[in-house]
TrEMBL record:
PANTHER family found in the cross-reference section: PHOSPHATE TRANSPORTER (PTHR11101)
Keywords linked to the UniProt accession: Membrane, Phosphate transport, Transmembrane, Transmembrane helix, Transport
Keyword Lyase assigned: no
Organism (species): Melanomma pulvis-pyrius CBS 109.77
Transmembrane segments: 44-64, 84-104, 116-132, 144-169, 181-205, 220-246, 493-512, 532-564, 576-602
Membrane topology reported for the UniProt record: Multi-pass membrane protein
Protein name in the entry: Phosphate transporter
Top-rank lineage group of the source organism: Eukaryota
A Gene Ontology molecular function term of the record: phosphate transmembrane transporter activity
Length: 609
């Protein structure tokens, strides 16, 4: 029996479930890929493609087929007394509170955990519904709020230890060698073995608990994980080592990516006569913008003051940009340009470059620029025509494609000459830079760990959004309050995984620009250490049934690897402090929003028919 009178609650709950999933992609998933993008192991657009594929693959194939009706056991099931309407309203308010808080934080580039936001909102709803004494404030077998607070403090610290241990191992085995290139090439199967084992364990214990793999005997799990890791290492020895040997040691720049299938035959490949350069990417965080097309898509945060103050409107050369010094800054100050004015002018120059581009984004930017709202109120026919015929379609295109053209690295390094830019320059100067040919070998390992993390996230964390939505849908469609477990239709998994990917593609850049290199200097060897350290931490906590945020783990691992540079100056502690504050504030704010909404709606005056 469909609860027709609660259809509006179902519609609103569906909206906030999708908004929560969108925020999940823009926040948590974007943070998971921020390390790989920041290390230049993968481009932002490639990360969007791989992230979408593996998120949806994990959610649809092995995602939660059942969901906890009461998130993490914070509210007892008996609290609703079988009232389906109150249960629908409770989870709608929880989704609304969590999604509104996370959306605000994402807009202001403050990274928070969508998991912790939803749990906190459920707690607030519980206080408004059944009273504070019925909410599980203690440990509750690792599912209460006490466990959440414990995980918030312990997880980043433990992840920092694991990440630092892995990177110090790489540093000792490879980076500190007098000739590190051969060591990097020939020891690469070892890192594939470690990464393959960790990734398999992530799928077994976090990515696919619904398959029951984590219930198998320990010997079976060990055999599967070590067998998979060993198989990956064997494939690396047969195909990857010859490939990087030919490309890096033999300096054969004619070797294409698809030639790895030749395997050991590449050892016998004769390099060309002009084999005097290594065909590997440049992994430096700050690079010269020599390419016209690339420079035309620099983000507002990458524009130097010299770009702003040139009077003739022409673009400065690279040498001019790097020549900005104290004298030029004094000139800027003498012209009374404050920070906000510089940002506005820089953004306008960035948008001007986008308007010169070909393709849909260039068209949309030109349309918005050339068709402002005319004189008079918005309800004037001419303005209505401009709005609906030209501006709204252009806004939709900009919203979908703007992030794909955003310069993540330039935004992370800050504006030259500003306090933030100087702070980041000091952080980068404190980190030792390793040869590109050495870092290149770890970029492949990092992409492997990032893809696995996305798969596990899609399989497990999609329950944060689909769980409450499944409860709302079940209560609405059957007319009965959901029990301890609610079935999750596969179409709901598909829809929300698609929305998560949409959040990653369209709004993920807003989180990526304040993560990664904004905390410490990144490179592939550092990045894969961070991701493996975070994955190990999540696995450890999952064995004790403790709620933990993957985002908090990767942040802690990032700080731990940054400290391996041997100085506190290698970490941007201001950004770390802002992250910790946002984590702590999530619990009371999301809980208050959810609780206030529930209290207002539950006690709204109504009339009986």
């Amino acid at each position: 029996m469909v609860l027709e009178k609660f259809t509006y609650v179902f519609v609103i709950g569906t909206f906030f479930a999708m908004l929560d999933a969108y925020n999940n992609g823009a926040n948590d998933v974007a943070n998971a890929w921020a390390t790989s993008v920041s290390s230049r192991s993968i481009t932002y657009r490639q990360a969007m493609i791989f992230g979408t594929i593996f998120e949806m693959l994990g959610a649809i194939t092995v995602g939660a087929r059942t969901a906890d009706t009461i998130k993490n056991g914070i509210i007892p099931t008996a609290a609703f007394k079988g009232d389906a309407g109150v249960q629908m309203l409770a989870f709608t308010c929880a989704l609304a509170g969590a999604s509104m808080w996370v959306m605000w934080c994402t807009k202001h580039s403050a990274h928070v955990s969508s998991t912790y936001s939803l749990i906190s909102a459920v707690a607030g709803v519980g206080v408004a519904t059944v009273g504070a004494d019925k909410v599980q404030w203690g440990w509750n077998n690792g599912k209460g709020l006490g466990a959440i607070f414990a995980g918030l403090g312990m997880a980043p610290a433990i992840a920092a230890g694991f990440g630092a241990t892995i990177f110090m191992t790489i540093k000792v085995v490879v980076h500190l060698r007098q000739n590190p290139v051969p060591w990097a090439v020939y020891t690469s199967p070892l890192w594939f073995l470690i990464a393959g084992t960790i990734c398999t364990l992530s799928i077994v214990y976090k990515g696919s608990p619904n398959l029951g793999l984590n219930k198998k005997p320990p010997g079976y799990v060990a055999g599967v994980t070590m067998g998979t890791g060993g198989g990956v290492a064997l494939l690396a020895a047969l195909f990857f080592v010859p490939f990087v040997y030919a490309r890096i040691i033999n300096r054969d720049h004619t070797v294409k990516w698809y030639m790895f299938v030749q395997g050991p035959l590449l050892f016998k490949r004769t390099p060309p006569a002009d084999a005097d350069r290594i065909n590997v990417p440049n992994y430096a965080v700050v690079q010269d913008e020599d390419d016209e097309e690339h420079s035309s898509t620099r983000s507002p945060d990458s524009i130097d003051e010299i770009d702003v103050i040139k009077g003739d409107g022409s673009l400065p050369t690279t040498n001019q940009a790097h020549a900005v010094n104290e004298k030029s800054l004094a000139d800027v100050e003498s012209k009374q340009h404050n920070y906000q004015e510089l940002m506005a002018a820089a953004q306008e120059k960035f948008h001007a470059r986008l308007r010169r581009k070909r393709g849909p984004l260039g068209w949309a930017m030109r349309t918005l620029h050339e068709n402002p709202i005319g004189p008079g109120e918005i309800y004037e026919f001419a303005n209505i025509k401009i709005l609906f015929v030209k501006r709204i379609p252009a806004m939709i295109v900009c919203g979908a494609l703007y992030g794909l053209h955003y310069d993540i690295h330039a935004a992370q390094s800050g504006i030259h000459g500003t306090p933030e830019g100087k702070r980041m320059q000091g952080v980068y100067d404190a980190a030792k830079k390793y040869p590109n040919e050495v870092e290149h070998t770890y970029s492949f390992v990092q992409v492997l760990t990032a893809c696995t993390a996305s798969f596990a996230h899609g399989a497990n964390d999609i329950g944060n959004s689909v769980g409450p939505w499944a409860v709302i849908y079940g209560a609405w469609s059957t007319g009965n309050a959901a029990k301890a477990k609610a079935p999750v239709p596969i179409w709901q998994l598909a829809v929300l995984s698609l929305v998560i990917s949409l959040g990653l593609i369209t709004y993920g850049y807003n989180i990526m620009k304040v993560m990664g290199n904004k905390i410490t200097y990144h490179s592939p060897s550092r990045g894969c250490s961070m991701e493996m350290g975070a994955a190990i931490t999540v696995l450890v906590f999952s064995q004790y049934s403790l709620p933990v945020s993957t985002s908090m783990c990767i942040t802690g691992a990032t700080v731990g690897v940054g400290l391996c540079n041997g100085t506190l100056k290698a970490v941007n502690w201001q950004r770390v402090g802002l992250l910790v504050i946002s984590w702590i504030m999530t619990i009371p704010i999301a809980g208050t929003i959810g609780g206030v909404l529930m209290g207002i709606l539950l006690n709204t005056p109504h009339f009986k028919a």
